[in-house]
Amino acid sequence: MLLVSEPILGHEEQAALADVIGSGWITMGQRVRTFEEAFASAHAKPDAVAVNSCTAALHLILAAFGIGPGDEVLVPSLTFVATANSVVYTGARPVFVDIEGLDTPFMSLADAAAKCTAKTKAVIVVHFAGYLVDKERWQQFASERGLYLIEDAAHAAGADKAGAIGDAAAFSFYGNKNMTTAEGGAVIASDPRVLDTIRQMRQHGMTTGTFQRFSSRQSTYDVTMLGFNYRMDELRAALGLVQLQHLAEWNAKRKTLTRHYMDLLYERCPGVLTPFRKSQGSSSSNHIMPIVLPDKSVRQDVVDKLRDRGIQTTIHYPPAHLFSFYREKYPTAPLPLTEEFAQRELTLPLHPRLEREHIQKVTRALAEALAQ
Fold first, then answer.
1. What per-residue confidence (pLDDT) applies to 18?
2. Which helix (H) or strand (E) holds 125?
3. How far apart are CA 146 and CA 140, in angstroms?
4. N or C: which end of the chain has fewer CB within 10 A?
5. Which residues contact 178 (CB under 8 A, 6 or more apart)?
6. 169 strand-pairing partners
7. Per-residue exposure over 146-157, b if at least 16 CB sit within 10 Å of its own CB, e if not
8. Cα–Cα distance for residue pair 110/100, rounded to 1 Å
9. SS3 149
10. CA–CA dist 275, 211 (Å, integer)
11. How far apart are CA 24 and CA 8, in angstroms?
12. pTM higher than 0.90 for the full model?
């Protein structure tokens, strides 16, 4: 089976985990700090805060900016549900925004502007598929309205300028991401004071952590804010340090495979739309390979035919505003472009274990499935 995503894990990761276990210190300690510094450096930033998920990262960013009850946050509906959930965690209201178009499934600036109110305090932009949103346009949008600009960079680890667009960015190291710690995430922020607040909030609001008290021989601490248990542990940090060393190489492989996909899809599947085709050459981590099927095709038939050929596919994403929870609690007007994209989108296999012959197989099978 050619999988949509597949992590690369081997002897280096095993040795790193064994070192942690042998050390006797497995919860948050010096390896977490080393990983934070290395991840920040890889994104040309002075510092980062590692946490246990990208969801936690988004929640902490919003909390650190003081987002809460009575506030509204603009979010795309075309995203993993965690983007909207993180807003609800703070007591604020997520306001769902449509996408620009089927070939550019970023959050629409025009629709975002139409949905701004006096209650709007922030906007979360998603670097869908690893492609970065337009920096200048979104910075101007947020600046003119006095909004916090937050990057959901779950797809964008290692992409040039990821984390340099907004006031803060949240990254994911889930098992299907370009680099993984199994579960995990990180925050990059432009203001070091925001990072300091997030660093304290991730550990219950305590002024010192267990490793700090152990190292300094101080056993007391204070709690000066409401915090959460969002810490990363040493095992995940050890995995992250190994994975980070290969991230640039793996992203380069993804870029090569994506270009091969684009060429073959154009040649073999003329009715298929490939989002971001015009963006090739711009900054991207090339996290996933989304396509938009012809409007007359039956997606489940295509899925089944590819599955029969040993090719897994998936969908990115069911619209968040159509989930039962959000329909009932935060009803919104239809988002026609988001809904059409979600009905026709199909994600093809893309990860560094693939080779050009695999892309040949997938595109050939897709062309045959569509022809049938």
1. 98
2. strand 120-126
3. 10
4. C
5. 130, 155, 157, 158, 247, 250, 251, 254, 285, 287
6. 151, 188
7. ebbbbbbbbbbb
8. 8
9. strand
10. 46
11. 26
12. yes
pLDDT tens digit string along 327-368? 999 999 999 999 999 999 999 999 999 999 999 999 999 999
- The letter for the amino acid at 107 is M
For range 183-189, the mean pLDDT: 98
Closest by CA to 105, choosing from 290, 284, 263, is: 290
Buried-exposed string 52-75: b where 16+ CB fall within 10 A, e elsewhere: bbbbbbbbbbbbbbebeeebbbbb
Active site residues: 177
Residue with tokens 């003119």: 144
Q: How far apart are CA 224 and CA 200, in angstroms?
A: 9
Both structure tokens of 29: 């300690």
Buried b (16+ CB within 10 A) or exposed e, 85-120: bbbbbbebbbbbbbbbebebbbbbbebbeebbeeeb
Domains of the chain are 11-242 (3.40.640.10), 247-371 (3.90.1150.10)
**SS3 state at 91:** coil
Phi/psi region, residue 161 (left: phi>0; alpha: psi -120 to 50; beta: rest), is left
